[in-house]
């Protein structure tokens, strides 16, 4: 069994800045593996232990993303692939999924693709499903448990108070919820070994796509404005009187501010 895990390196901060194109300014920011993607890594490594799967981790971004890939190798992944090229810069969800999809096609021969449900710096939850669409794969999303059978895979998906069971053929793509597992802490011996492993680097010329579909040029969406919402100052007013009188006063106050 061969598993590909798509991960993203994200800023480890609560306040971030964006350039005029709506692209995240990463320079000088501490970075981590997107927490939800660690759940995807852990799911793949669990299958590696149970079924002898081979795990390849893939990420797109600037050269510094190598740090995230090294951490994934330290957790236990077997291979790592870095997609990096200036032409990939400024990609939205669609262009990111297009690039990752081409790279996965190039790698070939896989049974499952795992990704986190969403990245903490965008919260779109679109890249995983769009990769599945690009590769024409069954999509099993929001997985809280995963069971692999003979040529099939089954997940449990939480829907409010209900749980939906979804089963599909392999190969397939699964997006992993944080409730799926608790990501492991890398063993010290694997931390040392991860720096001895070679990371495969692919650029635009290596993935054979249409130039106009990469990066900012290939992105059909544009961020017009990104900002932190200002907190409204709360004002408390007590309404005196009997319950009937205070209720009437409350209605009048709400009508004054057009709340009702």
UniProtKB/TrEMBL annotation:
Q: Is Cell inner membrane one of the keywords UniProt gives this record? A: no
Location of the Electron transfer flavoprotein alpha/beta-subunit N-terminal domain: 21-211
The cross-references to InterPro entries, in alphabetical order and at most eight, read:
ETF_a/b_N, ETF_b, ETF_beta_N, Rossmann-like_a/b/a_fold
Keywords associated with the record: Electron transport, Transport
GO MF terms held by the record: electron transfer activity
Q: Which Pfam families match?
A: ETF
Q: Which domain of life is it from?
A: Bacteria
> Does Transport show up as a keyword for this record?
yes
Coiled coil (UniProt feature) = none
Looking up PANTHER family in the UniProt record yields: ELECTRON TRANSFER FLAVOPROTEIN BETA-SUBUNIT, PROTEIN FIXA
Specify the protein name. Electron transfer flavoprotein alpha/beta-subunit n-terminal
User: What organism is recorded for this protein?
Assistant: Desulfoluna butyratoxydans
Question: Lineage, please?
Answer: Bacteria, Pseudomonadati, Thermodesulfobacteriota, Desulfobacteria, Desulfobacterales
């Amino acid at each position: 069994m061969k598993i590909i895990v798509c991960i993203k390196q994200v800023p480890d901060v609560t306040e971030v800045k964006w350039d005029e194109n709506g692209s995240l300014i990463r320079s000088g920011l501490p970075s981590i593996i997107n927490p939800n993607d660690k759940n995807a890594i852990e799911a793949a490594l669990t299958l590696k232990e149970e079924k002898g799967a081979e795990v390849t981790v893939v990420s797109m971004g600037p050269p510094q993303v190598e740090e995230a890939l090294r951490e994934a190798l330290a957790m236990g992944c077997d291979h790592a692939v870095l997609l990096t090229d200036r032409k990939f810069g400024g990609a939205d969800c669609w262009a990111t999924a297009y690039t990752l999809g081409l790279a996965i096609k190039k790698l070939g021969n896989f049974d499952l693709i795992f990704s986190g449900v969403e990245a903490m710096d965008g919260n779109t939850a679109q890249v995983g499903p769009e990769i599945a669409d690009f590769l024409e794969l069954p999509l099993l999303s929001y997985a809280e448990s995963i069971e692999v059978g003979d040529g099939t895979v089954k997940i449990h998906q939480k829907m409010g108070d209900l749980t939906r069971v979804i089963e599909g053929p392999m190969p397939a793509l699964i997006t992993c919820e944080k409730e799926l597992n608790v990501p492991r802490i890398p063993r010290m011996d694997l931390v040392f070994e991860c720096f001895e492993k070679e990371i495969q680097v692919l650029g635009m010329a290596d993935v054979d796509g249409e130039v106009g579909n990469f990066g900012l040029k290939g992105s059909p969406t544009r961020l017009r404005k990104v900002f932190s919402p200002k907190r409204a100052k709360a004002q408390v007013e007590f309404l005196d009187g009997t319950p009937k009188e205070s209720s009437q006063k409350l209605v009048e106050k709400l009508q004054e501010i057009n709340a009702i």
